[in-house]
Design goal:
This protein is of the alpha+beta class. The chain has helices spanning 7-75, 94-97, 118-130; strands spanning 80-84, 89-92, 100-101, 104-105, 134-141, 144-152, 161-168. Residues 27-58 form a coiled coil.
Length: 171
């Protein structure tokens, strides 16, 4: 500043310099905060990626177990029919597909009453009530005698359905 100076101009210059300094400091703080938050986001993203990988691996294992369960069900040498609590057929295996009851092939989505006598429906209801496996002896299907085990589902599917396992009776 050259002498003589104007007090008002000097005050404005000093005030402007202080304001600029404050802005620079605020900008530095904001920049540091942004860098810090970006690091946090990077860590969160890495953690999220790891969680996604873990969950994907869990789902792949569960999917393989489900595929294996389905293959086992399909390859069982006795007919198996899964029946919902409402009485509709939810699952059948290959052996059940090959059964012909009263000239009709068993189909998913149809009612159990479409194929079996009221006696079977009564056993299903009784199985729900007692939550124990019950057997119908010598049930006739197309001239062949079967013992039918009516087994309730367990675990989180308890009360949601039963499994009918048909064992051909040896004469």
């Amino acid at each position: 500043f050259l002498k003589p100076w104007n007090d008002q101009s000097l005050k404005l210059e000093i005030k402007s310099a202080l304001e600029q300094y404050d802005l620079i400091q605020a900008n530095k703080r904001l920049h540091e905060k942004i860098v810090e938050q970006n690091e946090e986001l990077k860590k969160i993203n890495e953690n999220l990626e790891m969680l996604v990988k873990e969950r994907t691996m869990e789902l792949e294992i569960q999917n393989q177990a489900l595929e294996l369960s389905r293959a086992i069900l399909e390859d069982l040498t006795l007919p198996v029919i899964g029946v919902s609590a409402e009485g509709s057929i939810a699952v059948i295996n290959r052996e059940a597909e090959s059964l012909s009851i009263n000239g009709n092939d068993i189909e998913i989505g149809r009612e159990i009453n479409d194929y079996f006598s009221p006696k079977v429906k009564e056993k299903i209801i009784s199985t729900f009530q007692t939550n124990t496996t019950q057997t119908i002896k010598d049930y006739q299907i197309s001239g062949i005698a079967y013992d039918i085990d009516v087994t309730p589902l367990s675990g989180r599917f308890r009360g949601k359905g039963v499994i009918l396992s048909l064992r051909q009776v040896e004469n």
